[in-house]
Design brief:
The structure is a single chain. It contains five helices and 15 strands. The mean pLDDT is about 85. The strands form four sheets. The protein has a four-stranded mixed sheet with strand order 1-2-3-4. It has a four-stranded antiparallel sheet with strand order 8-15-10-13, with no helix packed on it. It folds into four domains: about 40 residues, no CATH class; about 55 residues, no CATH class; about 45 residues, no CATH class; about 120 residues, Jelly Rolls, CATH 2.60.120. It is of the alpha+beta class and about 300 residues long.
Amino acid sequence: MDLLISANTVAQAQADTAPATGTPGWATDGDPAQGIIATDSPAWHYNMMMAELIAFVKAAGITPSNSDWSQTLKAAQILFAPAQRGVAPYNAALATLIGGYPKFAVVVDAAGAFWVSTADANMTVPGATGANWTSLFASYTTTTDGDYRYARTGGAGDLQTGHKIYIGFNGTRMVGIVDTTEFGNIAFSNQFVSASSKVFFAATSDQSSTTLTYTAPVSGTFLITANANVGVAANQTQPDVAEFGIFLDGNPTAITSDTTSISMSHCIAVPVGAGAHTISAVYAPTSQVANWHSRSIALTYLFIPS
């Protein structure tokens, strides 16, 4: 469709326009028998209808052509595409016509990506740097991501269903949360560390000891066991008693100790902070009398992260 190509046409600036006053009505061919005069068809009315149709065609991005008599239909198919698709492709010409897409409008680009407008009068192009569009699925997690990032309930029993289980970093440590209750830190298998030492000593009246060290990655607890076994023959005793204790981080005061003339053992749980730690088991005769019998000292720890 297009405007007239005929003698006595004028440019749009000189086209007749609707009168400023008068009552709008419907046209009639008239009836001479009843004295009803036929309605004139003024040029301004033709101009008005053509202007409406031309604007409609151009809004769809179509250039008017008098050789194509289906342009109004084509324009409707383009402009009303959302009714068929649900979401229409982004259209720069349409954006210009309507003064920019409104906030929360949804479009699809040529690659099939869906976008949501984040501003009114949005003239920017989806996907462009600084554009006022965001991915429709920006706040959604894919099935694959969900499998790796979130814990899912399983197993059987009343406690296994109807709950939300979260595992995440709270800013300082990994924690586990069921619904809204935090159940404490999450420990990893490589954070459970143990070590042991066993040393044999010949008969001597000197102090005997063994030491283990460990750098804790997080705060936790040492479970420490220490044993001192004295090699005393039947019907014999050591010349004197000895003190056997466990010492932590070079502190001169034992965290636990005993003083007897026989074999001794200790088992204790000690909370510690993250960092380097030293654990020592020391067997110290209370006096140096003759040569004491041979002895062995065994020291073991298990570190349990908090």
